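Example record

The entry below shows one chain as it appears in the dataset: sequence first, then structure tokens.
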Amino acid sequence: MLWLLISADFGEKKELLRLEQKLDKAIELLSGDKPVSVKDSLSLESSVTNVVEEWLQKNSNSNKDIEVKLRDKLQNFQDISETARHNVEKRKEFDSIASEWLKLRCNSLKELGIRNVLSKNIEMKEAGGLLYPQDKITQLNEDIDKLLKILVTSLSTHQHPSLSETITLKLPTSVYLDVLKVIWEEVIPKYLNSEPEQISNEALNRLKGYFLLLRDELKQMQSL
């Protein structure tokens, strides 16, 4: 900014530019699509605020226009930080609602999902198929149950679902992906249409997001 270049000496100008860049980067981080935790938001705000306040104290005799503009930018950052924390808390609230909704329906969703996949792909349970003999269908039931419960836990703790340390899958990954896709695209919509008390769109979107995260985890395992 021209007003910075004119009103400050070189050393002060460099420091002020660094502060502005730090504020802009912090604002960009909090305003972006990637969620920022309450803890990270508070830590970022505290760090940036302390640096700016320290600069203002050291340069108390600087041009007042500089001080006003810097304080305005700091206030803007703090406002955005407050909004970011509020958004995090709302997301956590919807995560918890989605977790409770899923927890009560895990068994039904699992059974309907597997049944639908088998009815569409009869060859899977025939000799030579991916789910032959019968004990593989039993294994699929156990694994889908575990996967849905991982989703329940992830939603309740607001953590990315991780499979590497929590479950060992014994069937082809494609089978799990097929079942989860049917659960999300077919079974859950029918469930929602039949229930008098609807889950909110916000909580449903959070549920969908976690399903997609779980799908991506499975695809990553498939590519290894």
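Notes for this example: Residues 1-8 have pLDDT under 50 and may be disordered. The longest helix spans residues 64-103.
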